[in-house]
Amino acid sequence: MNSENYKTEIHNMIQNGKDPKDMVIQMCRPQCKWYDDKYDRCVKAFLSLKNADPEKNCMYPYRDLVTCVEACVQPKIQHALRGNEHGSIFS
To answer: Which partner from 32, 48, 84, 89 sits 20 to 30 angstroms from 15, CA to CA?
Structure first.
């Protein structure tokens, strides 16, 4: 799906009272492959250790992945909100 189709789909979902975030996350996640791979490597490394909890020990790579995905998702949803037709809700 190209960017214009996503913009239309996001707008339609918002108009129908649905949350488009899960769909946009799926669209944005491939753009953060480097962070995703880094997190996966961390989890695999900690799973190979005894008594290690990857959820606690891989917090920073996971934070980097979430930050990357959110940086992609937020503007796509923000621009589809009512009142943001001219580029800024607060203008």
So the answer is: 32
Half-sphere exposure of 37 (CA within 13 A, CB side): 5
Q: Which residue has the tokens 């008594």?
A: 51
Query: CB of 40 within 8 A of CB of 73?
Result: no
The per-residue pLDDT for range 21-70, each reduced to its tens digit, is: 999 999 999 999 999 999 999 988 888 876 766 666 888 999 999 999 99
Buried b (16+ CB within 10 A) or exposed e, 27-49: bbbeebeebbebbeebbeeeeee
Q: What pTM, to 2 d.p., does this model score?
A: 0.76
